Known about the structure:
Layout: E1 2-7, E2 10-14, E3 17-21, E4 29-34, E5 39-40, E6 47-48, E7 54-58, E8 61-62, E9 70-75, E10 81-86, E11 89-94, E12 98-107, E13 113-122, E14 128-129, E15 136-139, E16 143-147, E17 152-153, E18 161-166, E19 172-177, E20 180-185, E21 189-198, E22 204-214, E23 217-222, E24 234-236, E25 239-243, E26 246-250, E27 259-280, E28 286-293, E29 299-309, E30 312-320, E31 325-329, E32 346-354, E33 357-362, E34 365-371, E35 379-388, E36 393-405, H1 423-426, E37 434-438, H2 440-444
Amino acid sequence: MLRCTMQSRRFLRLRGGLLPWLLPCGFALTACDDAEPPASCGFIPQLTVAVDESSAVTACFNDPNGDRLSYRATSSDPGVATASASGNTITVTGVAPGNASVSVTAADPGGLEGSLVFRVMVPNRPPVAVGFIPAFNTLVGDTGSLDVSEFFHEPDGQSLTYTVDSSDPAVATGSVAGSVVTLRALGVGTSIAQVRATDPGGLYALQPVTVTVRQADERFRDDFDTSASLDKWLVSNATAVVRQGVLELASPDGASVAGLAERALTSPLYPWRIDVSMGRRSLESSFVSVWWWTGDPVYSILSFEIGPQLSNNYNLFVFDMASRMALRIVDFSGASDAVKEGSGELTDIELSFSGGRFRGVAGTTELFNAKNSLIPRSLTAVALVSRGAPNATVLFDWFEVDGTMVNTPAFDWTVPKAPAIALSRQIRAVREFRVVDTTLEELFGPGG
């Protein structure tokens, strides 16, 4: 390509030599030079840019002929990084981890072009743990599943694969389907399950899960041998003294507010059995009872009570929390010679719920045995109770609970524990509850 310029005098090289041609004044000869393309005046070092982030660099080109240049930028792999040009400013945006090259072209108005190439690296960043996967507290033989994807973040937007390993496979094992981790409890103990989230490049993040496995059966017994037994009970509105292996419980205001010694269980029980030896030292207007918390929103507390009421010497009450009524179940209330009524005399009582049957025994005498699937059956907390005349003393020689834990994992695979609220807060003023006699069928419907 030729570029032509006007000059007043030129020397032309002819075949035979160099002859000067003096051009008349005002006459000019047009001479033509070779045009040159734009040339790079520097290099661009490798650029590192993360996924979804952008970085700009400046491309440097000189045009020998001083023409204005236009620019364009092209990526060798738009799936890794894209490139665009605004003037000589080149913007690169990361798309996915990998390597690419960007070619920058500068063109003059005549179509001549120059170019340079620089490399781009989009780094693979590792996944990161988000928050903490909750502990898995469960029973032998049970399983729990959880979608763990929300506990990991992949900064580059790549798909993650999940695995799980147990530090003690004899306690718990794990398996994965997609992002759902399933843990199976095999034996009593504690194990750490490591959940691993791995990206396509092999980078990973870990989340430990503490797995605690208990026996399905729970049992505790208190013989009240020493005053140290009281450390296991929450005493409210009562004085509690252990004397000669017997717990003496008295309420200073028993007529209006019952005195309680309460104890929560680590997990709901069903089936269950309560065994207790209890009686009264004070006989006049004095009642000794065992209350238990069911977890039912309406019939939250049931009570088996010894003491004279009407012609009965034992009664079973269901507390209706909504209507604030003490419902005496006549099917489970009555009089029996097996229930001892003398001062200081103790009666061994067995209360149990198994196979849908609710049973009560005094000594060796069965007081009731009925089947009804609607009776609240879970046992989550218990209380030893003194009610009646102020400072009336009731006695407990020993107390025992035995049962099978009910494992009901929530979405976060944590077995719910017994409620932290005290029973005494549920029923602060017994006197405010109106006593109403009813039958099992009237209250819960036909047995089934």
